[in-house]
Amino acid sequence: MLVNLKNQFIILFFFMFSIFSCGKEDTTIPSIIINKPLSNDSFQIPTNINIVGSTWDDNKIDRIEIDVVSENSATIIQKIELDADTNYFEFNISFSLIDRLINSDNYFINVKSFDENDNFNSEYVPVYINEVPKILQSTYYIISTNNLTNLYEIDSLNNLHLKCQKPGNYNISIGNSRHQYLFIGTDEIVESVEPLFYTSLWDLSSVTTLSYNFTGILKSDDGNQLFLGHEDGRIFTINKDGNIINSIYSNNQDFFGKFFVDQDLVLVESKTNSFDKKLVVFFKQSGIEKQRINISGTVKKILPKGNHQYIVASNFFGTAKLNIYYENSNSMTTELEIPNCEIYDVIILNNNILIASSNGLYNFNLSGNLMSTISTSHFCNKIVKGEQNQDIYLICGNELWSYNSSGSLNLVNTVFDSIRDYLPFYNK
């Protein structure tokens, strides 16, 4: 009888032990070892990255996740998931990294392991990824004749090859190397074309007022947006897919002239008539007017000087003027006046302003307020700034000239008709 009671007690003990053992919560995280790549390995895009390692747990490993993240935890490749269903799991996986828009920087290979109770652990390996070098991919001329706008590609021998033809007289154009398209606006169409077969990517003709001229086209610093100005008093923000994502409208049915888009502000020439002209500042996102100031003459260009200051180049009754607008105080001062002269275009180059005018080419040093003459025989209607090595190109009728910071001019090419625009186009 005592033996039976003893046996019953033993059975009850193991039964209770098994119940409490099964009910104990699993809080142990999996272990991970990454054997490859090694810490601080370097990779040059395009590349294949091989990730080798193992993970284990006292319970079964359910799955592992692998991705590559930046220092601010942004994922740069699509996450890879592997099913495991075992206590010990070895992984050996490769993926291609070919994105031409990834910047050179420190990144992390992130391996995350989950057990069947969703406990998880992460291991990171720091690596350095070198971006695709930026190179000149193509160069284009735009020539407009006989109510047609023609896009020509230039080969290594400076020969022109017609790539596409758009109806209407030329108005505006810009190249977007980051998203690989060329934007062309005429008095009949507004569209972008891709640089392989030159087919249309998106068309804005139906949402623009082609009876009015465009006042300019600008690109954001990161290349993700375009800003398109209309004379009838509108400035559109366009994303990389051709969608209008923001608009600024003039007040009191005013007309718009030249404009500039800064980080949070938009500065634009606004006019009721030829004599009543203002420089108006709008908040970029809301389109609400912040302030305005009276101006004289016709604005040709608005450029950033820094510290909430802007260069305003204008023509006023035969005098070319460079003014500085102080946004904080909503005031303006005149830095330079050139009598009997008309400004065609200006750009900022380091601490100098390169001026293309009816009198030739000038350089104005902002620090010393000194002007020097570069040439009195080059009458250039447009200045094009490249995206590498501060390349500067001057469109002078049917001639294209290059200019460097040492002040030398070199003839690049002469073509059969007036060049309306020159578009250096890069791989990114």
How do the helices and strands line up, and which of them pair or pack?
Layout (H helix, E strand, L loop, with lengths): L1 H22 L7 E6 L4 E4 L2 E24 L9 E18 L7 E11 L4 E11 L5 E10 L2 E7 L5 E8 L2 E7 L4 E6 L3 E4 L6 E4 L10 E6 L5 E6 L3 E6 L4 E6 L5 E7 L3 E7 L5 E7 L5 E6 L3 E9 L2 E8 L2 E8 L4 E9 L3 E7 L2 E6 L2 E6 L4 E6 L6 E4 L6 E5 L2 E5 L5 E6 L6 E6 L2
Parallel strand pairs: 2-6
Antiparallel strand pairs: 1-3, 3-4, 3-5, 5-6, 7-8, 7-34, 8-9, 10-11, 11-12, 12-13, 14-15, 15-16, 16-17, 18-19, 19-20, 20-21, 22-23, 23-24, 24-25, 26-27, 27-28, 28-29, 30-31, 31-32, 32-33
Give a description of the structure:
With 428 residues, the protein is mainly β. The chain has a domain at 28-130: Sandwich (Immunoglobulin-like). Helix content is 5%, strand content 60%. Strands 1, 2, 3, 4, 5 and 6 form a six-stranded mixed sheet that branches. The protein is elongated and about 90 Å long.
CATH class category label of the domain at 28-130: Mainly Beta
CATH architecture of the domain at 28-130: Sandwich
The tally of strands reads 34
**Number of helices, where a helix is a run of at least 4 consecutive DSSP H or I residues:** 1
